[in-house]
Amino acid sequence: MFKALAYAAASKTSPMAPIVISRREPRLNDVNIEILYCGVCHTDIHTAQGEWDGLIYPNGTIYPCVPGHEIVGRVTSLGPNAKRFKVGEVVAVGTMVDSCLECDSCRVGRESYCENSATWTYNAPDRVTGENTQGGYSGSIVVREEFVLKLNFPEQSLAAVAPLLCAGITMWSPLRHWKIGPGKKVGIVGIGGLGHMGIKFARALGSHVVAFTTSESKCEDAVKLGAHEVVVTPNPQEMSAQAGKLDFVLNTLAVPHSLDAYLALLGHGGTMALVGIPEKPHPSPSVASLIGLRRSLAGSLVGGIGETQEMLDFCAEHGVLAETETIPIQAIETAFARIVKNDIRYRFVIDMKSLQRSV
User: Fold this and answer.
1) What are phi and psi of 290, to 5 degrees?
2) Do residues 207 and 184 touch, judged by C-beta distance below 8 A?
3) CA–CA separation, 68 vs 66, rounded Å?
4) Residue 356 phi, psi dihedral angles, 5° rounding
5) Environment class of residue 133 by beta-carbon count within 10 Å: exposed (0-12), middle (13-18) or buried (19+)?
6) 0.90 cut: is pTM over it?
7) How crowded is the C-beta side of 177, counted as CA atoms within 13 Å?
8) Please, what's the largest Cα pairwise distance for the chain?
9) What does DSSP assign to residue 103?
C-alpha cells in the first residue's frame, strides 16, 4: 500500500476536503497512474451528496468518498504481467476499473453490463479485497490494465479529453448502438455536459442534428457545436414543427419530465434513448404514443472498454473534444454549485497539479 493525496466527501453534508488515502501496490496486471486531469461529472455530486442512495447504490455512498471517473494520467509503474503500456505513457481511465471478464456481456465487450457487476471507479467494492474504490480526485490511481485506455492526442488537448471518458462514451454508445449516421435525423435533448457531446458526435457521424433546449441563450452555441436546427422546447410551435420527423432521440435530461412530448417527435419505428437518471421517476408515458407508430423507449449506460477505445480513436482522428473550463481542485465546491445551477459550458476539468497546494 502507498499513500495518495485526494479530495473526499466525509459525509453527504460535508464539503469536499483534502484527505490522504491508501492505494494498493500494483498487482500482476495493474497499471499505476499519476493523474494529470480529472473531469467533473454530475454523477460525482449525486454520489458525494448521497442523492442516489437506494436508487443506484443499494448500500448508499460509502464515506469517505473520492469521486472522479474521467481520468487522464501518466503511467508511473506496472505490474510484472502488464504488457500493453509503458512507463511515461499518457493513458486514460473511465467509469470502470474492473469486471469479471468472464460473463457473456464481458466476453462481447459490454463490461459496463457485467452480469457479476462491473467495478466502478469509485464507490464500489474492489473485486479482490472488497475495499471501497476511490476515484480520480486524487494524485494517483491503480487500475487493472484491461481497463486502461490508449490516447493519441496532443499534450495541449489532454484537459479536453478527460470528459470523453464519461460524457463522451455515454453519448457515443447509444449513437453507435442505434446505428446513427448519414440519412438519419437525430434529436439531442439537453445542451449540457452530455448533450453538447451528443451534438458533436451525431454531426461527426453524418446525421442531421436537431438540438432541443429550454434556453434561448444556448441556440447559438448549439449551432456552433454542430446542430443543423435548434428547437426551444417551451415554444409549442417549434416542437410541433418537428413532430414525427426524427429517427432517434437521445434524451440527456436528468430531471422528471413528460416523455410523451419527445416521443411525439419520432417517426414510425423511431427510438428515444434515456441516459439521464432523475432522482424521482418520470411521469409514465402514454402507451398510445408508443403503439401508434411502433415507437420504442429505451435506456443506455456507458459503453464497454472496446467501444470507449473506438470513441477515443474517432475523436483523435476527427478533432472532437469536450468544451471545458479548467479549475484547481480547491474550487471543487464552487464547481459543484455551478453545475447544479447549470452554470457551466460545458464541463469542468480539474488540473491535478493544483492538488499539491493542498499538502
Assistant:
1) -85, -45
2) yes
3) 7
4) -65, -25
5) buried
6) yes
7) 22
8) 63
9) S
CA nearest neighbour of 98 among 156, 183, 24: 24
pLDDT, tens digit, 9 for 90 and up, residues 86-144: 999 999 999 999 999 999 999 999 999 999 999 999 999 999 999 999 999 999 999 99
- Residue 158 and residue 173: Cα distance in Å, rounded? 21
What phi and psi, each to the nearest 5 degrees, are found at residue 92?
-135, 155
Strand locations in the chain (E): 2-8, 17-23, 30-40, 71-78, 90-93, 96-98, 119-120, 140-144, 149-150, 185-189, 208-213, 229-232, 246-251, 266-274, 296-299, 324-327, 347-351
Strands (E), 41-177: 71-78, 90-93, 96-98, 119-120, 140-144, 149-150
* Residues 6, 8, 10: CA angle, nearest 5 degrees: 145
Distance, CA of 133 to CA of 67 (rounded, Å): 9
User: Do 347 and 40 form a contact (C-beta atoms < 8 A)?
Assistant: yes
Residues 337, 179 contacting (CB under 8 angstroms): no
Of the candidates 97, 125, 101, the residue with the CA atom closest to the CA atom of residue 115: 101
Q: Please state the φ and ψ torsions of residue 295, each to the nearest 5 degrees.
A: -80, 155
Of 175, 306, 185, the residue nearest 252 (C-alpha): 175
| pLDDT digit string, tens, across residues 253-278 | 999 999 999 999 999 999 999 999 98
For 289, the 3-state DSSP assignment is helix
CA torsion 79-80-83-86 (nearest 10°) is 60
- Report, in this order, helix, strand and coil percent for the chain, each rounded to 5: 30, 30, 45
